[in-house]
């Protein structure tokens, strides 16, 4: 399964009233392993950011002046997102801006390009009811290092979300395999964990341990009246 962690930065909070995207960050994960593939785009919004927004992301009007408008990067973005599941923290906000930008650029709606959108904030609220579920709060709770996060950068935040999501869903390196409670067929619907690279140590018994084991089997044979049939099969 191909998933994309996505985050955006904007000129303000209201896409319906003309606020625009200024940055888009995407990080790819396939079958619960980060592939190293990313997409990072700065966008000239054609308008200044609000003072509050600029304090958050630090992207000045001068910095964005020579960046391409959204319509110039829309096809690259859509090609990268094609067929993927998007994982976004507080997805309604980012999706609202993406919808508005795509409609303005005359491109396909987001829902026709991606397979689905998964809002990680809903997962966090289920896991930690009554607790803070901002990305910063989750980083503290799950011990994800975000000390390098001076500003809210889209690619940095997408990377933090990827680490937080993996920890909320037991981590990509977990040896625990989620099993569904399927009383009818006993089937598994949890993520498959690749254990092919795991090397287990094999410890050979000492002569003393072998002798103790034989004594235990003899005692079992005597107590069961000679019913330890596996010894006969082995012989």
Describe the structure.
The radius of gyration is 27 Å and the shape is elongated. The protein folds into 2 domains: 167 residues, Nucleotidyltransferase, domain 5 (2-Layer Sandwich), CATH 3.30.420.10; 36 residues, no CATH class. A hairpin with a 2-residue loop joins strand 2 and strand 3. Helix 6 packs across helix 7. A 5-stranded mixed sheet has the order 3-2-1-4-5, with helices on both faces. It is α/β, with parallel strands linked by helices and 235 residues long. The protein is built from 9 helices and 5 strands.
Topology summary:
Elements: E1 2-10, E2 21-30, E3 33-42, H1 51-57, H2 61-64, H3 70-81, E4 85-88, H4 91-104, E5 116-119, H5 120-127, H6 135-142, H7 154-168, H8 207-223, H9 229-234
Parallel strand pairs: 1-4, 4-5
Antiparallel strand pairs: 1-2, 2-3
Low-confidence stretches: 172-190
User: Termini distance?
Assistant: 49 Å
Helix content: 25-40%
Please tell me how large the radius of gyration is: 27 Å
Shape annotation: elongated
CATH architecture of the largest domain: 2-Layer Sandwich
Taking all residues together, what is the mean pLDDT?
86
Looking at the structure, the CATH topology of the largest domain is Nucleotidyltransferase, domain 5
What string, H for helix and E for strand, traces the elements in order? EEEHHHEHEHHHHH
Domain unit count: 2
Structural class, please?
alpha/beta
CATH superfamily of the largest domain: Ribonuclease H-like superfamily/Ribonuclease H
User: Based on DSSP secondary structure assignment, what is the total number of beta strands?
Assistant: 5
Indicate the proportion of strand residues.
15-25%
The number of helical segments is 9
CATH class term of the largest domain: Alpha Beta
Summarize the biggest pleated sheet: 5 strands, mixed
Strand order across the largest sheet: 3-2-1-4-5
